[in-house]
Amino acid sequence: MKITIIGTGYVGLVTGACLAELGNDVFCLDVDAKKIALLNSGGIPIHEPGLEEVVARNRAAGRLQFSTDVAASVAHGTLQFIAVGTPPDEDGSADLQYVLAAARNIGRHMTEFKVIVDKSTVPVGTADRVRAAVQEELDARGAAATFSVVSNPEFLKEGAAVEDFMRPDRIVIGYDRTPEGERAHGLMKKLYTPFNRNHERTFWMDVRSAEFTKYAANAMLATRISFMNELANLADQVGADIEAVRHGIGSDPRIGHSFLYAGAGYGGSCFPKDVQALERTARLYDQDLLILRAVEAVNDKQKLVLGQKVVKRFGEDLTGRHFAVWGLAFKPNTDDMREAPARVLLKQLLDAGASVAVYDPVAMPEAQRVLALDLDAAQLARVRFAGSPMDTLDAADALVIVTEWKAFRSPDFDLIKASLKQAVIFDGRNLFEPEVMAEAGFEYHGIGRSILTRS
Ligand code: NAD
Hints:
By secondary structure, the protein is α/β, with parallel strands linked by helices. The chain has 2 domains: 2-205, 3-Layer(aba) Sandwich (Rossmann fold); 225-452, 3-Layer(aba) Sandwich (Rossmann fold). The protein is built from 18 helices and 14 strands. It has helices spanning 10-21, 33-40, 51-60, 70-76, 97-109, 126-140, 161-166, 179-192, 207-238, 242-250, 271-284, 290-314, 341-351, 364-374, 377-380, 413-419, 434-439, 450-453, and strands at 2-6, 25-29, 64-67, 79-82, 114-118, 147-151, 171-174, 202-205, 322-326, 355-359, 383-385, 398-401, 424-427, 443-445. The chain has a 6-stranded parallel beta sheet with strand order 3-2-1-4-5-6, sandwiched between helices. Helix 13 links the parallel strand 9 and strand 10. The longest helix is centred in the middle third of the chain and has 32 residues, at 207-238. The radius of gyration is 24 Å and the shape is elongated. It binds nicotinamide-adenine-dinucleotide (NAD). Nicotinamide-adenine-dinucleotide (NAD) is lined by residues 6-12, 29-32, 35, 83-86, 98, 101-102, 120-121, 154, 156, 158, 269-270.
C-alpha cells in the first residue's frame, strides 16, 4: 500500500521503516531539512536498536523515501499518518499546532480520497479538529475530495521501538461509522493484517475511545511508578526493603510484576506530558483528576531523592566534592534525555558546588547538547564527559547510578573500590543487592532499601 508518514521522529521513522519492511511503499516527510538530508545520506538521527538495518534495507529496496516536499507527500499515500510531536503547551495541555499544520497541508493538496491517521498522542476530540482543519482547506479552494480521520495511537517503547512495532501487544484503531469511515476501516484492516497472523491484536472502537486509550495507558503506567516510589520512600523510613515488597505484591496476578520498580522517577517525552495533558483535558470538563495530580507531584519530588541522599551523606555544601555519574538517558537503550532524572540530579549536585564526571553508553552527544541548555558556564566547566564508566571514577567521593543500562549491572567492584576516594554508591535504579554490596565493602544507598543497609 502507498503510505505517507508526516513527521519523521521516533514514532514516524520507526512506523515508516517497519511498514516498508512489510512491503509497503512509504514516503516519510519532515519539516526538518537537516534530518531528511541525514536520512538521505544513510544516517539515522536517533539511537534505536535494529532501526538502522531496517531503514538501510528498505531504502535500498526503494520502498522507503525521505523528503521535505509537502505536495509530493500528500500525493503519495492514500493513508496519511500524522506522527508529529505534541509537546506540552504552557498550561500543560497538548500543543496541537504541529498536528493541525500537518492536517492543513493535507487539505491544501489532496485531490482524491485520503485516510488521515492520527498516530501522535492527541487529546480526546482532536480528530474532530483535524477533520475541521482539512475541510476548511478543501472548502477554501472549492475541492470536493472526501476523507476520513482515524485514531491509531502508538504504544511503542523507546529502546525497543522496532520490536514493539513489529510485535505489538495490541493495535488500537478508532474509526467513524460513516461510509468514509467504513472505507478507512477496510484500508486499515488490510494494512495491519500482517500483524494479526498469529492472533487478532486489533481493537476496533470509536475515535474518541481510541484517543483516550493512549492517555489511559500512559497514566496507568506512570501511576504504578509513582505509587512504588512513594512507598519506597516510606520503606526507607520504616526500615523495609521495597524490592522484597515488590516481589510480595507482584506475584498477585491482579497486580503483576511489570512496572513496579522504585527508582529516580520517570522521564522521557511521553509520561510527563501525557499525564499533564490528561489532567488538563479533565479540567476543561470541570473534573479534577486527583490521582494524576498526585502522580505528577510524586514524580517531581522523586527526581530529587537521589540528590537528597547525596546531600544527607556529604552535607549541603558539596564544594570540593566530586561525583561519578553513570547513566544520563531517561531510560536504557535510548539517547533521549527529555525530562531525564539525570538532568535534575546534575543540577542539584552542581548547584551545591560539586564537580562531576558523567558517562552514558549512547547519550553523550545528546547530554552535551541538553546540559549546555540546563547549566551555566561555570557549572558546565565542572562537568567532565568521560569515555567509559570506569573513566568517571578517579578521585570521586561516590558513584551515583541514574539509568539502568545493562552495561552497569555487573561492573568490576574491586576496580570501582580502588578508584573511588571512598566506597560509596548511590543507586537510583536498585541494580545491586545491598547485602552483597555490604559484603564487598561498599556503603550502598538504594531507593527504599534501608533495612539492609542499616548498620
Ligand atoms: P519527535 O519530536 O521525535 O518527532 C516529531 C517530528 O515531526 C520531528 O522530526 C519534527 O520535525 C516533525 N514535524 C513537526 N511538524 C511537522 C509538519 N508539519 N510536517 C512534517 N513534519 C513535522 O516526536 P516523537 O517522539 O516521534 O513523538 C511523536 C508523537 O508520538 C507524539 O505525539 C508522542 O507523544 C507520540 N508517541 C511517542 C512515543 C515515543 O516513545 N517517542 C511513543 C508513543 C507515542
